[in-house]
Design goal:
This protein has helices at residues 4-8, 30-41, 60-69, 79-84, 98-111, 114-119, 121-140, 147-164, 166-171, 176-185, 198-202, 205-228, 240-249, 260-274, 276-291, 293-307, 322-334, 367-371, 415-432, and strands at residues 44-49, 52-57, 145-146, 344-345, 350-352, 355-357, 362-365, 433-436, 450-452, 456-458, 463-468. It is α+β, with helices and mostly antiparallel strands. The chain has a single domain (4-468), classed as Cytochrome P450 (Cytochrome p450, Orthogonal Bundle), CATH 1.10.630.10. The strands form four sheets. Strands 1-2-7-4 form a four-stranded mixed beta sheet. Strands 3-11-8 form a three-stranded antiparallel beta sheet. A two-stranded antiparallel sheet has the order 5-6. It binds protoporphyrin IX containing FE. Heme binds at residue 412.
């Protein structure tokens, strides 16, 4: 029971409008708007987004303080997420509870374990080799490369091959998966003002979702049936659908993956969480490097020294690429692909710093604002990978200062899958080519505008000119 003083104490809240509360203040870039509001109102604000009370956390200290007494491991029930996760059977959207615990455990032990990720090294190396050879062709015709596009295709191909196997990946699946990602990132009125949810039908969003979901479901059914018939079952590495079907048959896991919907829910995790995040990270890294030629030269020299004259960077070289890893960390500090992570939700009334937070309050952790806090970072806006040389700041989910992969129990289980992809692709891009801006463009003209859907992309595609480096063979 709360003391009277606790009942009266409230978190700061920007001025609200009737019905919509603070929704109008989110704008097109909620992570920026919320950051700005936090500078005025404080690192813990309780906003009213439509009818949803929302606690926004904007500094590492506030995050540490909040998570000291509360875990906030529950997720809110969001409309599109519910549909695409077959009623919250995915790991990312399932509520905190036994199913989430079991599914996440299985995911970490069986799907995204170090051993499993290693088993996919051939896929990564083949896809990187294809990427490099495609860019080499561009060099010979003196053209520029739309890196945003080729990196997104690469990331999609790797996750598709790993999840479905080569046969299905080669046949393609049109725009079905991309459309589902777009719809997951849309603004759904029903998630903020449930009684006005009919507006989503009026705007055509629901129809789009139902159409896309039907296509996606048919596609998943087809993939599963093919695997059951033995299509891609017996060749190595074993793809994730095959692993999931084995787990489905295994009495030890029987209750966790008891139906095909459970399997489809987990497949959805791989695509919604695993594709755009890696390609957005790579695009932001190349953007920062082209703006910061000194860092580009340092990373490139390191890669060329370590890989020598063997013509490509291999996975076992990655452990020696110290500066490259700092570049990745610094880019993820400045451009976390999910700047507001995935929202959490309180399950019961709790008290934070003497203020009462009601049940079903949405919790938003502003990773981007945390990265820009001058009390944590010197010159936070500056791109300076060297800042990590003497710092133990880590992004694996335990350090409140750096949370691009989230924090605590709900932090990203895909980090060991994502990092080898990001590192291998980046290392080979720097090893094989010198990168330049298109003729007539200066780095000052480089546009850093963002677009936030399910992940935060560079709005204007990154187009650069590759020059083949001949000194590595
Ligand atoms: C650079 C790449 C990636 C970034 C930046 C990233 C970031 C994140 C973030 C911010 C969250 C939410 C964490 C939180 O609420 O605290 C998350 C959750 C998740 N990610 Fe990733 N992710 C990446 C790659 C991947 C990959 C490759 C996979 C799988 C193949 C994956 C699977 C998941 C899953 C299943 C969750 C939900 C965890 C849960 O709710 O328990 N992610 N990720």
């Amino acid at each position: 029971k709360l003391r009277k003083s606790q009942r009266n104490h409230v978190f700061p809240c920007p001025r609200k409008l009737p019905i919509i509360g603070n929704l109008h203040q989110l704008g097109a870039h909620p992570h920026h708007s919320l950051h700005k509001l936090s500078l005025k109102h404080g690192p813990l604000m309780l906003l009213q987004l439509g009818s949803v009370p929302t606690l926004v956390i904007s500094t590492a200290d506030a995050l540490r303080e909040v998570l000291k007494t509360n875990d906030f491991s529950n997720r809110p029930s969001l409309y599109a997420a519910k549909r695409y996760s077959y009623g919250f059977l995915s790991i990312s959207f399932s509520p905190y509870g036994e199913y989430w615990r079991q599914a996440r455990k299985v995911c970490i032990l069986e799907l995204l374990s170090v051993k499993r990720v290693q088993s996919f090294s051939k896929i990564r190396e083949e896809e990187v080799a294809n990427l490099i050879s495609g860019i080499k062709d561009t060099c010979f015709s003196s053209k520029s490369v739309n890196l945003s596009k080729v990196l997104q295709d690469l990331s999609n191909r790797i996750v598709t091959r790993v999840t479905f196997g080569d046969g299905i990946a080669a046949r393609g699946y049109g725009n079905i998966l991309e459309e589902s990602q777009r719809l997951l990132g849309e603004f759904w009125v029903v998630d903020y003002l449930p009684w006005l949810g009919w507006i989503d039908a009026l705007t055509g969003l629901r129809k789009r979702l139902e159409k896309n979901f039907k296509e996606l479901d048919e596609f998943y059914n087809h993939v599963i049936e093919e695997h059951m018939r033995g299509g891609s079952a017996d060749h190595e590495p074993c793809d994730l659908v095959h692993v999931l079907l084995q787990l489905h048959k295994d009495p030890a896991y029987g209750t966790t993956f008891s139906s095909m919907s459970h399997i489809k829910g987990i497949i959805m995790d791989m695509f919604s969480a695993g594709t755009d995040t890696s390609s957005a990270t790579l695009t932001w890294i190349m953007t920062e490097l082209i703006i910061n030629p000194r860092a580009m030269a340092k990373a490139r020299d390191e890669v060329r020294k370590i890989a020598g004259k063997k013509g490509k960077v291999e996975e076992h070289d990655l452990q020696d690429l110290t500066y490259l890893k700092l570049v990745i960390k610094e880019t993820m500090r400045l451009h976390p692909p999910a700047p507001l992570l995935i929202p959490r939700e309180t399950t019961e009334t709790c008290v934070i710093q003497g203020s009462k937070v009601p049940p079903k309050t949405r919790i938003i952790i502003n990773a981007r604002a945390i990265s820009l806090d001058p009390n944590t970072w010197d010159n936070p806006e500056e791109f300076r990978p060297e800042r990590f040389i003497d710092s133990n700041a880590d992004f694996r989910g335990q350090d409140f200062r750096l949370v691009p992969f989230g924090v605590g129990r709900r932090s990203c289980p895909g980090i060991n899958f994502a990092l080898p992809v990001v590192e291998l692709v980046l290392a080979n891009l720097l090893y094989c080519f010198d990168w330049e801006l298109p003729a007539g463009m200066t780095k000052e003209e480089m546009d850093l505008e963002e677009e936030l859907g399910i992940t935060m992309h560079k709005k204007i595609p990154l187009v650069l000119v590759p020059r083949l480096f001949q000194g590595n063979v």
